[in-house]
Amino acid sequence: MHQLTLAEIARGLADKQFSSEELTKSLLARIAQLDPQLNSFISVTEDLALEQAKAADARRANGESGALLGAPIAHKDLFCTQGIRTSCGSKMLDNFKAPYDATVVAKLASAGAVTLGKTNMDEFAMGSANESSYYGAVKNPWNLEHVPGGSSGGSAAAVAARLLPAATGTDTGGSIRQPAALTNLTGLKPTYGRVSRWGMIAYASSLDQGGPMARTAEDCAILLQGMAGFDANDSTSIDEPVPDYSASLNDSLQGLRVGVPKEYFSAGLDPRIAELIHTSVKELEKLGAVIKEISLPNMQHAIPAYYVIAPAEASSNLSRFDGVRFGYRCEDPKNLIDLYKRSRGEGFGAEVQRRIMVGAYALSAGYYDAYYLKAQKIRRLIKNDFMTAFNEVDIILGPTTPNPAWKLGAKNSDPVAAYLEDVYTITANLAGLPGLSMPAGFVDGLPVGVQLLAPYFQEGRLLNVAHQYQLNTDWHTRTPTGF
Ligand code: GLN
């Protein structure tokens, strides 16, 4: 049963081939058996899952239907879940039980999804390797000596290892698409404002966006359908109708204009990945797409701009964790300053502290104009590049990452080397655009992703292109040995 996709599960439940309770029990057993190798879960919510599964079965018995009714999922551990630990991968929130459900959690629960647990992640979603978690590194099921990507590495590893069919993730600079690429999944970062951020613990508020991670585009469509929509509780939520994402999956790609930016094929890109990207371009051409070379001239400035803006916002968002209002409190504080210093010093890991320092510096008097304001101007130039490109093409295609998954620990002493892995993903966050990563082949037995970007609110187009590609390729069906 663990090989089933969300779409197949929906059919199996509708045809009464199995119940949600049976499916949930078998996946919980699989998690207990296999997750010790991967460390992809921070909390497994067995009791809640069985309760939700029984409730879903009862709703079906009463004549209700729906693609998510009885479907097992998990949430990245930064979505607040009422009464359940929501740690954000940090010692700071190790004992935090959220008093309410995030909008995404509540929406999926009301659609009947069954929550198996909360997945491991980089601390406060800062990272590209899932090594900065207080709960330990996550392993890549394709090779247990390699990272699964981050920061939604727990969701990625769990879905790739067939512990469950799909999970939520969040993407501030690539944290859905990059781990999806490194573990052979399909992952979608929606347009900024498409999915509510209410109840998502903030990293960089102007960039954060929740989205689906699954093995197929078809499943991402199902999960996104349950997550998307206007939410009055999120002031940046956008009141746009949510289309039927599954309905457009089979649209023809005849005449689709695909832009391939020439800047993507620079020295930093592994030539074997470049080769696979060219192969995926040819695949789309066979399906009727028209390929065009385009240019994104300001792309080279994206990493420096992001690594000013994201830490700046993080330094402000994380100031609430002071041991008084929120978060871990140190033992025996001598006075107020000692309490702040030690609570934050002991509660936050090294990468989070580094980002808070960078962000506070970039926002401080005298440096604000030179760094933060400059980065915001670059952000606008990057957005303008995309607007120009989308006058000529319908989607943009390229690699998701410059390299396949690296070895655990390989970039630990060099944070900038890890930041450079975000080169293809962060521009979509800076511009607020939707992006999708899908499996495109293997290098040294490790998965490679191809990224598609589309204009605002064109998630349906991304899912359509990915689904058509997946009907004609079989990379996404490959299973890691041992899982
Ligand atoms: N790797 C990027 C960072 O560390 C992106 C993380 C994310 O998208 N949450 O900031």
TrEMBL record:
Family matches, as SUPFAM superfamilies: Amidase signature (AS) enzymes (SSF75304)
Pfam families per the UniProt record, alphabetical = Amidase
Q: What is its EC number?
A: 6.3.5.7
Protein keywords: ATP-binding, Ligase, Nucleotide-binding, Protein biosynthesis, Transferase
**UniProt GO cellular component terms:** glutamyl-tRNA(Gln) amidotransferase complex
What catalytic activity is recorded? L-glutamyl-tRNA(Gln) + L-glutamine + ATP + H2O = L-glutaminyl-tRNA(Gln) + L-glutamate + ADP + phosphate + H(+)
Tree of life domain: Bacteria
Ranges in coiled-coil conformation = none
**A GO biological process held by the record:** translation
Where does the record place the catalytic residues?
K76, S151, S175
* Top-level class of the enzyme under EC nomenclature: ligase
PROSITE patterns hit by this protein:
AMIDASES (PS00571)
Which residue intervals define the domain Amidase in the entry? 22-463
GO molecular function annotations of the record: ATP binding; glutaminyl-tRNA synthase (glutamine-hydrolyzing) activity; transferase activity
Recorded family membership: Belongs to the amidase family. GatA subfamily.
Give the NCBIfam families listed for this entry.
gatA
Its subunit composition reads: Heterotrimer of A, B and C subunits.
According to its UniProt entry, the function of this protein is described as: Allows the formation of correctly charged Gln-tRNA(Gln) through the transamidation of misacylated Glu-tRNA(Gln) in organisms which lack glutaminyl-tRNA synthetase. The reaction takes place in the presence of glutamine and ATP through an activated gamma-phospho-Glu-tRNA(Gln).
The protein depicted here goes by the name Glutamyl-tRNA(Gln) amidotransferase subunit A
What organism is this sequence from? Pseudomonas fluorescens
